[in-house]
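User: I'm curious whether this sequence folds into something compact or stays loose and floppy. Could you predict its structure so I can see for myself?
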Amino acid sequence: MTERRNADLSRLLVRRRGVGMLATSMADGGAPYASLVTYACDHRGQPLFLFSTLSDHTKNIAADARASLLVENAARNRNPQTGPRLTLMGTVKRDKSPETRARFLARHPDAALYADFGDFAFYRMTVERGHYVGGFARAVWFDAKHILTPKKIADEMAAIEDGVVQHMNADHAEAVRAYADSLLGRRPGNWRMTGCDSDGADLMADGRYARLEYDKPVTDSKTCRDTLVALAKQARS
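Assistant: Here's the prediction. I'll summarize afterward.
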């Protein structure tokens, strides 16, 4: 498998999942500490978090922003060592941008119940490196530039995301449901698109999440539209 393909699989894995293990260094003494966290991704594929200042991992990154996030799709395998996992390394710092808030809450809507509590704040991981293990003898290190979506494309997709999501839900709700039912094999429901990026779209229904992945990345409004139209035709065939 080529290095480029492994890099793409790394990015797809982190976008697909929404939970991982965050490793930080204890503020008192520096011992390693791991905690279960939920996350979303920005348009480059970097993790976004909502943390309470009362949590140990938040105190830890306040003292030392360096952290690692382990994301996996292996635990349910008969032999977990055969499944894919990715460790992202970088720094985690507070992020007050409206885009970060919107992306996280679109992926984890239940978090809106406490997002505005005084002790909660949003954070972003600036990814520096990644270590992807696709199974036995399939381990590779990447610099961030090889994993993340290029900034120009990410900015373009961020600019059109709201319009795409609103258009699909308002004018093509049947297609969105077909994506979930026919292409992804999910149980019928009121599926709606809640986000999109260069690699795919996020769908939700009654608290259930599904990820619609594209065969290849889209780069602008035209390629995004063409891909969604083609997937709708495929879902109906």
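Summary: The mean pLDDT is 96. The chain has two domains: 3-148, 153-236.
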